[in-house]
Amino acid sequence: MENITAIIVEDSRLARNELKELLKKHPQIELVAEAENVDKAYELINQKQPRILFLDINMPEKNGFELLEMLENVPMTIFTTAYDEYAIKSFEYNAFDYLLKPISQERFSKTIEKVITAIEKEASENTPFELHRQIFIKEGENCWLIRISEIAIFEIVGNYTRVYFDEHKPLIYKSLNQIEAKLPEETFFRANRQQIINLNHVDKVVPWFNGKLKITMKNSKQEIEVSRRQSYKFKEVLGF
Hints:
Layout lengths: L3 E6 L3 H11 L5 E7 L2 H11 L3 E5 L7 H7 L5 E6 L5 H6 L4 E4 L4 H21 L8 E6 L2 E6 L5 E5 L2 E5 L6 E2 L3 H5 L7 E3 L4 E4 L3 E6 L5 E5 L5 E4 L1 H11 L2
Parallel strand pairs: 1-2, 1-3, 3-4, 4-5
Antiparallel strand pairs: 6-7, 8-9, 8-12, 9-10, 11-12, 13-14, 14-15
Helix pairs in contact: 2-3
């Protein structure tokens, strides 16, 4: 297993140093950057694309929750805070874990073990999808078993991805980038930062503003705006 990259976001230098000391017992975690505020963290996360994020909640100007709302692709997030009243809210943001300061080595090690187990499980499941493959989707009390070919659109919604098929549109806890990596390229196309479409579900394509395209999907009649950059790729794929 390759090293797991991490970034620490914490306004206190002392707290950052304490986390780095805890990490010394876990050489498989590679600290690639640290930041003392949200704006710097946003820049570093987009640049480094870490697997995990150690994130303080209370910081000057913007807090940890605001950082997660800014990100398009959210790393596996472990909150580190001195305040236990944020625990419930942290899991609304799909936190992987919540560490209360001062953090003991034993508690920290348990979190790292969970991280490694989760990443290994994800890697074992990371086989490419085929169109005829069936996948299980669950949202609340509702469950579906559907073929990949039946899915018309994948769409980012915060830390989740909305899956459109028939009249349904449940949310699943996977990033759009994770999903895109497993989809057959000849059938699914990244229309913009937020959406991937199934080319077999496209009904109509029309020119749009500034070199963009507008696509209408078959069943839902949903309109998808293709970014200018992706419009060039779309024309190449379909031989326009």
